[in-house]
Structure formats: C-alpha cells, structure tokens
Design goal:
Blueprint (H helix, E strand, L loop, with lengths): L1 H8 L9 H30 L6 H20 L3 H28 L19 H12 L8 H5 L43 H33 L33 H7 L6 H32 L7 H7 L11 H9 L3 H4 L12 H34 L3 H9 L24 H15 L14 H25 L10 H16 L15 H13 L1
Helix pairs in contact: 1-7, 2-3, 2-9, 2-13, 2-16, 3-9, 4-7, 4-9, 8-9, 9-11, 13-15, 13-16, 14-17
C-alpha cells in the first residue's frame, strides 16, 4: 500500500477526463473525509473507554464536546490553523518515536509465526493478505492532502504568474481546487527563491511523505508482531467473527483495540498502558481534525462555483460561502455532522464494549473510507494517463509551444520554479490504476469468501461506495445532458484545458489582499455562527 500511495502521488492530475466524473470524484473525496471524521470519533470513543468512563459521560464528551472543539479549531484563519497542524504533527511524531523506543526495549518473544493467519476470517494466507491490504488502505488516507490544502495556499503578489508564463497542473477535477502537478509550464522569467522553496516543498511531500509513512507503519507492525501472539485474546477481531472459545480468561480480553496499548498494558512498566492510550487518543483526534479540514474545503470547492438558477444549485451554493477569514464555516459544520449520527447508534446497545458495538461501526466506516479513497486514487491515475497521452503527439506540442505553453517533461533544462517532473511514466500510472482496480474489485471481495453466515452487510460495506459512485456519475450525465464519453483531447481542447489551469494557478496568488483579522472572542465567534446559519 505504501508503494501504491507513492505512485498515486506521482499522478495528481485534473481536467483531462470528464466534467461529470470530476464532480463524482469530488463528492467521493468529500464523503471519504467526512465519513473518516465520524470513524475517528468512534475510534476515540473506544480508546476513551480504556479508562472505564461512564457511558453517559463518554457519549457527551466524545460525541458532542470534542466535535465542537474540532469545529472551533477549524474556524481559525488558515495561518493559525496551519500552526495548529504543525504543533499536533510534531507531537504525533514525538509520540511515535517514544512508542517505537519502548517497543524495542520490551523484549521480543515471537519469531516463528510469520505466515500465521486467523482461519476464522480467511480460508488461506493469500486471502488473509488481500483482506489486510484492503483494511490497510484506511491508514494511507490523506497522503494526497497537500493537493486539497493548495486551495488556500497563497503566493505573494511578486510571484504573480501574470508577470511570467503559464503553468499547468494535472489532476482529476475536484472543482476549483489547485493541485500539485507533474506537468508545469516553463515561465519566461527565472524563478525566485520563494517559488523555488514552494516547488521543493511539493517535491519533498510527493516523493518522501508516502515513503516515511510506510516506514513508520512497517516498523511499528514488525515490532508488534514480534511481541504479540497472533492468537492473543486481546487483539481485536473482525466484528462479524465470534470470540474464540479457547479464551480461558474472558476478563483479560479487549483491553484495547490498539496492539501498542495491549503490549504496554502487559509490560512491567507501571502506567505505560495509560500513556500509550493517551498517545493514540491524541493522534486519533488530531487526524479527525485534519479530516474535517479536508472535507469542508472539498465541499466548499464543489459548491461555490455553481452558477445556474436551479433551486438545488442555489441551496448547494450556500455551502460554498466563506466568512471574513475565508473559512467555509457552513461546509465545515455540515461535513462534521453529516455522519456524526452514526456513532450514536452504539448507545442502543447499552455498552461501549470494544469487541462489539463500537468496533462494528468502525469497521464499516473505515471500509467506506478505504473504498472511497481508492476510487479517488484510481481516477487520479486515469486522469494522468489521459494527460500523458494527449501531449505526446508532436502536433499538440506545436500548438502548446505556439501559445507559450511548455509542458515540464519536454523542457531541455531542469526548471525549478514549478512542481516536479515525475519519473517512470506512464508505467507508474498504469500500474497504480491497475492495482487500485484490483483492490476495489478483488481484494474487497475477499471478506465474502469465508463467511458461513449472511454476507449482505459485508457485500454492501465492500461494494456500496463503488455502486453509489457509478450511479452518481451516470445520474450527473443524465441530468446535465452530457455525452457518454470522455472529453476530447485534440490540440485546441488541450490548449483550453491549459488555459483553465492557468486560471486556477492565478487564483492561488495574493492580489493586495487584506491582512488576516486578529483573533476574536468566543462571543463574536458565536455571533458569526448564528449569522451564518441565518443566512
């Protein structure tokens, strides 16, 4: 999955496939992060339950207070919010280093179960591997967040592209959101230091962040596998699998769903389990905060460009409006509460037992997120393949050259002003697309192969997002009266696409913008909230 995430980051592309597909991808992207926000809140409830808090108190804190706090964080100006992300990211990395250090310090005792698997979940080791890859996709949701956050990035007016040549970005259209690119246009003026710094940041993020994330996951998983038996009763099982009858001491089971906490709680170090559980809880809430940011910006990007006078469009435009600090407050509130009702369904069970109620919902939501992000990744790869093929003919390049457009991969010199040129294309894009489709069609179906009971829930969990995505794409084609084909990519169409990309690039530059307003009191924030709702 780490290799796939890296490959997708080399293929961030837009505007080269289909307008309706772009809208559907935007909806899928919003759905992934909005559902992910609810899934992480549900996960936080499970970790919070480690301290055996009363259900009523936990429901109030986790399902009401914490979402409101995360919404408050997201109401800050993007500059302040960025520092919040830097701070939480630094803390999370520090926690990771501490956790890995203690895992190394705790002696390994399991060496000979490398090919073991749970025969209650899978019929064979290959099937278990397929299921693991499908589940692991949830952990890689977000490696492309730099593309979504670019919508609020601003370059200084001195770097205005109107004073130089054109640029290009390639990515599946998420309606109005600038993307990091593989193909950029050669500027007439040399790049200044600020532009080079931005370009280097994008290069580093796209090339190395998936690599670092993969290393962290592999190292953590390896250390856990060397410390825990795969049959340990404390390890979480899939919710549809009955608890093993071989468990002698049922009271020992379900300490936590986190193997790190299980190892810490079973060690001789007093209080280590509590510390690890706090680390994990903090990480989950920080990730939920990021998910809310991406979901709200995606929804705002989808809706603020709607210009027709249909009632539905007027209603949707309401979510695209921003407040005085350019924050899409309405889209943020809707994204936070669109699926917030789902975790409350645990309350009907009368218990927050990690084995049953909460875990089953987390599995369903996580699978939805995994499927949604793989759909988006597949469309990004398809868009890059279309982009790559459209600029290969010499006559297309001649038209672009005549218009002053110079695709990055055909430059003679290594221009540093614009984002990078990826390597081994289009092979990387084709392989990434194929693997995404294999996960969606084959690996997701592995959950159905060894179940003796009803498979309806697992089928819907695995394939419902795909079916809804295809239905939405078809519905958009019908409603908009569009052709049942991809956009044409002749020389003039390609030129127009690059012109649109220039407009998106210009939108990321500052044009005598007013400086951010100082922070306001809670009373004023409440007034803004009421006023936004009344509008």
């Amino acid at each position: 999955m780490g290799i796939l995430a890296w490959a997708v980051m080399q293929c961030i592309t837009e505007l080269f496939v289909d307008d309706e597909l772009g809208i559907a991808v935007g909806v899928a992207y919003w759905f992934t992060y909005s559902v992910g926000f609810s899934a992480l809140i549900a996960s936080a409830a499970e970790y919070f339950n480690y301290w055996e808090v009363k259900p009523g108190v936990m429901a109030a804190v986790i399902y009401i207070v914490i979402p409101l706090i995360l919404i408050a964080f997201n109401t800050y100006d993007i500059g302040i919010y960025g520092w919040i992300e830097v701070a939480t990211g630094t803390v999370k990395i520090s926690f990771l280093v501490i956790v890995l250090f203690f895992l190394v310090a705790i002696n390994a005792r399991v060496w000979n179960t490398g090919s073991a698997y749970d025969d209650q979940a899978a019929a064979s080791w290959p099937v278990a591997l397929m299921m693991c890859l499908s589940i692991a996709a949830f952990s890689y949701v977000g490696v492309e967040i730099i593309a979504a956050s670019a919508v609020e990035a601003r370059w200084r007016a001195s770097s205005n592209p109107t004073q130089s040549s054109r640029t290009s970005a390639n990515g599946e259209k998420l309606h109005g959101q600038p993307q990091p690119t593989d193909a950029s246009l050669n500027p007439a003026a040399p790049a200044n230091e600020e532009q080079k710094s931005i370009s280097d940041t994008i290069i580093f993020t796209a090339a190395f962040v998936p690599f670092f994330v993969t290393i962290a996951y592999v190292l953590g998983g390896l250390l856990v596998s060397l410390r825990l038996e795969f049959k340990d009763c404390n390890l979480p099982k899939l919710a549809w699998i009955n608890k093993s009858k071989d468990n002698i001491n049922e009271n020992r089971c379900d300490i936590s769903s986190s193997p790190f906490v299980i190892i810490a709680a079973g060690s001789d170090i007093k209080g280590l389990g509590t510390a690890f559980n706090f680390f994990i809880l903090f990480t989950v809430l920080a990730c939920a905060n990021t998910n809310l940011y991406v979901a709200s910006r995606t929804l705002a990007g989808l809706t603020y460009r709607l210009t027709d006078d249909r009632r539905l469009s007027r209603w949707l435009r309401w979510f695209g409006r921003t407040d005085e600090r350019k924050v899409p407050f309405r889209a943020m509130v809707f994204s936070a509460f669109a699926f917030a009702w789902v975790p409350f369904l645990q309350l009907e069970t009368g218990s927050f037992d990690a084995s049953y109620g909460i875990r089953s919902f987390i599995e369903i939501l996580a699978q939805f997120c995994s499927t949604g992000v793989i759909i988006v990744w597949a469309c990004l790869c398809l868009a890059y393949i279309r982009y790559y093929r459209c600029i290969r003919p010499s006559y297309v390049r001649d038209v672009l050259e005549h218009a002053g457009i110079h695709p990055r991969q055909y430059q003679q010199h290594g221009e540093k002003k614009y984002p990078y040129r990826s390597h081994w294309q289009p092979l990387v894009a084709y392989l990434a697309l194929i693997f995404c489709l294999v996960i969606l069609v084959l690996f997701n179906g592995a959950f159905l192969w060894n179940q003796k009971e009803s498979r309806g829930v697992q089928f819907l969990t695995s394939y419902l997002p795909v079916l809804v995505f295809l239905a939405l794409w078809a519905a958009l084609k019908i409603v908009r009266g569009a052709k049942w084909s991809f956009v044409k990519l002749d020389e003039m169409e390609v030129k127009e696409i690059f012109e649109q990309l220039k407009e998106l690039r210009v939108a990321t530059f500052e044009h005598n913008e007013e400086p951010p307003q100082p922070d306001h009191s809670l009373l004023q924030r409440t007034f803004w909230f009421v006023r936004a709702i009344r509008r």
